[in-house]
Design a protein that fits this description.
CATH architecture of one domain: 2-Layer Sandwich
Radius of gyration: 22 Å
Shape: globular
Strand content: 25-35%
Number of strands: 18
Strand order of the largest sheet: 10-6-1-2-3-18
CATH class of one domain: Alpha Beta
Largest sheet: 6 strands, mixed
Order of helices and strands: EEEEEHEEHEEHEHEEEHHEEHEHEEHHH
Helix content: 25-40%
CATH topology of one domain: Dna Ligase, domain 1
């Protein structure tokens, strides 16, 4: 038997649609995806329905031809400052019974159906821990006996009207929405590896129009956030400062970065009037540092707000993290360990599956800019595949994996 999962990332700079096919008979997995330039998006959110619809229709048409299937309902990523996270608890009577899978599943259903604030809608209810009567909280309560079972869920809600607009956008292109995934959690699920860590970590995806992030403690998410900025904002500032087109400003940004190794003092570029000018490499670096200084201040506030010790580090991904030297600059600004990671979709699959093939139409294997859509695929698949597992195990398999010893490695 084969099963296909589809995920759509509506980014500021690109629309990306991906497909994960699991072959249960041969125990193999295949990932395929394609992307088109974005339209009608700003700061990671829908701004112009007409432009977004035109680009999405193009993507859907190409995807149906490439995937050789009429697209069924798909999972759609949702991002933006309207997302909010909290912890909610639910109680279930056991009547002296042993805790079974059915009890945990019922608590999950209760969480998904729980009322939220007016104008809000829940997009994620992730089990974090369970408590039987007055015993200590546990990641796996199976086979324990008691009178009551309590669950703690990490809940993410979104603006209901914005979600309706996303549904209308997809429906206008002939595609139904099966579920929404908060993009910060999806990005994190694609890059977190296996291995122990104690203090926690903060994971950010530097996208085109915003910086999405999730803070983790003891392997589970505790806080979701979206910050202003992103790679497109940096490009705009370079273009405005030196009167360059967006394409030329993007080239300058990527070529210079923070390191500017072996470039000399000047970089040649054409302004909007087609005139050749020489831009100071140091001036470009200084501009980028000023913008990252603002980002680092907001990140510092989050670390302090959550009470994380100085040893707690930052993981970065997303297209914006490809900027040369950005991890070194952030590490210096934050005085914390910083690592840059690409999506690891293979480790997010069940252990029985083998990554049989990996392809992208005319492109390489997944890069940091694909972290969101890869994470969404893993979350969609694991929602069905982990019905047999609970608590800490399911949290781990859902891509909320412990970071391998990079904290020690970066300090050594």
């Amino acid at each position: 038997m084969k099963k296909k999962y589809f995920a759509l990332d509506l980014g500021t700079t690109k629309f990306c649609l991906a497909c994960l096919e699991l072959d249960y008979g041969n125990q193999t997995a295949t990932v395929d995806w394609l992307a088109v330039p974005a339209g009608g998006m700003k700061s990671g959110m829908l701004e112009r329905m007409d432009r977004a619809s035109a680009q999405l229709a193009t993507l859907i048409g190409q995807a149906e031809e490439q995937f050789k299937v009429d697209l069924p309902a798909i999972v759609v990523g949702v991002a933006g400052r309207h997302l909010a996270s909290t912890f909610v608890e639910h109680l279930l009577s056991l009547h002296g019974q042993r805790v079974g899978l059915k009890h945990c599943q019922k608590l999950q259903r209760l969480a998904s159906l729980a009322p939220v604030s007016e104008g809000r809608e829940q997009v994620l209810a992730l089990p974090v821990a369970y408590q039987v009567d007055a015993r200590p909280w546990s990641s796996n309560p199976l086979q324990l006996t008691g009178q009551h079972l309590r669950s703690s869920m990490f809940s993410v809600t979104a603006d209901k009207h914005y979600l309706r607009d996303l549904v209308r956008l997809c429906n206008s292109c002939g595609v139904k929405v099966s579920a929404f995934q908060p993009e910060p959690v999806a990005s994190a699920s694609a890059i977190l590896g296996t291995g122990p860590y104690r203090q926690g970590a903060v994971i950010i995806d530097i996208g085109g129009g915003s910086v999405d992030g999730v803070a983790y403690r003891h392997s589970v998410p505790v806080y979701l956030f979206t910050l202003r900025g992103g790679g497109e904002a940096l490009t705009d500032k370079i273009g405005f400062h030196w009167n360059l087109s967006l394409q030329e400003a993007e080239r300058v940004k990527r070529q210079v970065g923070f390191l500017a190794t072996g470039m000399g003092d000047k970089i040649e570029c054409l302004d909007l009037h087609g005139r050749l000018q020489k831009v100071s490499v140091k001036a470009v670096v200084d501009l980028l540092i000023r913008e990252f200084t603002l980002l680092s201040r907001e990140l510092k506030d989050i670390f302090v707000q959550l009470g994380y010790p100085q040893s707690t580090g930052l993981l970065i991904t997303g297209g914006g993290s490809e900027l040369l030297g950005c991890e070194q600059v952030l590490a210096k600004m934050l005085s914390r360990p910083v690592a840059k990671l690409s999506p690891d979709w293979k480790s997010g699959l069940p252990s029985a599956f083998d990554a049989h093939s990996l392809r992208q139409m005319g492109g390489p294997t997944p890069g940091k800019q694909h972290a969101t859509v890869i994470g969404m695929l893993l979350l969609a698949a694991q929602k069905e595949l982990d019905l047999h597992d609970l608590g800490g195990a399911s949290v781990t398999k859902l891509g909320l994996r412990k970071v391998w010893g990079w904290l020690r490695e970066l300090k050594s």
